Amino acid sequence: MPAELIKKLQDYKLVKQVRYVYDNVKYYRDLMDAKGVKPEDIHGTEDLHKLPFLKKDDLREAYPDGLLATDKKNCVRIQSTSGTTGKRVVAFYTQNDVDMWEDCTARAIVAAGGTEGDVCQVCYGYGLFTGGSGLHGGSHKVGCLTLPMSSGNTERQIQFMMDLESTILCCTPSYAAYLSESLKERGYKPEDNKLKAGIFGAEPWTEEMRRDIEKNLGIKAYDIYGLTELSGPGVAFECEEQKGMHINEDHFLAEIIDPDTGEVLPIGSKGELVFTSLDKEAFPLLRYRTRDICVLSREKCSCGRTFVRMTKPLGRSDDMMIIRGVNVFPSQIEAVLLNKGYAPNYQIVLDRVNNSDTFDINVEMGQEDFSDSPKDITLKEKALQDAMKAMLGINPKVHLVAPKTIARSEGKAVRVIDNRKRYGITI
Ligand code: ADP
Ligand code: ZN
After folding, report:
1. Whose C-alpha lies nearest to ligand 1, atom 10?
2. CA-to-CA distance for 89 and 364, rounded, in angstroms?
3. Would you place residue 86 in the very low, low, confident or very high pLDDT band (cuts 50, 70, 90)?
4. pLDDT score of 329
5. Any residues with Cβ below 6 Å from ligand 1, and which?
6. Residue 299 CA to chain centroid, in angstroms?
7. How would you label 213-252 residue by residue, b for 16+ Cβ within 10 Å and e otherwise?
8. Which of 158, 232, 246, 266 could form a disulfide linkage to 134, CB 3.0–4.6 angstroms apart?
9. Cβ distance 213 to 221 under 8 Å?
10. Whose atoms come closest to the Cα of 89: which ligand?
11. Which residue has the higher pLDDT, 38 or 84?
12. What is the mean pLDDT of residues 358-365?
């Protein structure tokens, strides 16, 4: 569709979506009223800037269903953001919402060369996480033979990949790298598998990692982007050009803003990505701040698609870390420490070993713990580690260290040391 027509479609859908949200979501109606904006003020995308933003905090405040725009009996599905117990966000879907989402992931599979002749091995996690069911639905829509593997059990993944001759692999890039190493260890060469493409996303990865995976698996590796709040993976996807991800603009309207002032920035500027859903029924979001820092481009793409392209997220405008694909906030770690009677003197150390994230937390002991025996300290570390696991959904290594040993710069502790930056991982 030519860009002018896409804009017309967006104008039309936006007016409808704003009216729908205003009439059905009290939480957002209050925000609009507070800003003095009425649905009648929105005639098209040029009026978008008049609308208030929605932030993750709003989603938490409205938890669980304060942003739901339709009766629960019209909904067929709930998904939730990865691993963050204390800060979980739940999203609702009607059948039309699921269809729209699966159309988006189907487009990603087609853009990666997928057809009904393909065997699509989905090893994103199934369940509340959007990766598994999202790619699964898209694979069905394309007509691929779908292998709903879910994550883990590498032995079985490899056996099915070989015996059932998978041609498309869908998983996180770190699992793809792990799988490729596991294949190598078992003596398989890249030409031994039938894979031709991989669709990898949900976490940041680098061009180097892409080249490694492509070489070791003998495939072309495509990026896919999305977030649960908007549906899941497939909000944007890569084409064969592999220069940025096309945003499914008929469903999601993108803006780039200055994260400090909220001002809309011209195309080509680096800033925070903001999305407005255009035709969601259960969980429509207007001007939702993703906190992902990106650049948009309208440069013509050789694939022929006219959808705007976004760069990979280049960073975050909040302090969220993505560790082994799970979103982690320092505030969650502080909450566990305070709950367990520790002062919030801690340091998070992240690194990458064999393409997998390592996650260590150093915690200063109080003077009273310092005199404990090594055995008692080990027990305390274990208890803290279990509490962290329960809160975050992933397992850090917790080290209790002597009081006042965590380096402070200008009196302020450095909370996160992210050695993954060496490998180009910026979030
Ligand atoms: P997921 O279930 O994909 O982790 P969440 O909603 O929990 O989805 O997290 C969404 C966030 O994950 C995005 O805002 C972004 O920061 C990150 N993300 C998703 N896809 C990618 C990708 N392809 N590259 C980098 N980061 C990504
Ligand atoms: Zn393209």
Report:
1. 227
2. 31
3. low
4. 85
5. 81-82, 129-131, 201-204, 223-228, 233, 290, 292, 312-313, 322, 325, 327
6. 25
7. bbebbbbbbbbbbbbbbbbbbbbbbbbeeeebbbbbbbbb
8. 232
9. yes
10. 1
11. 38
12. 94
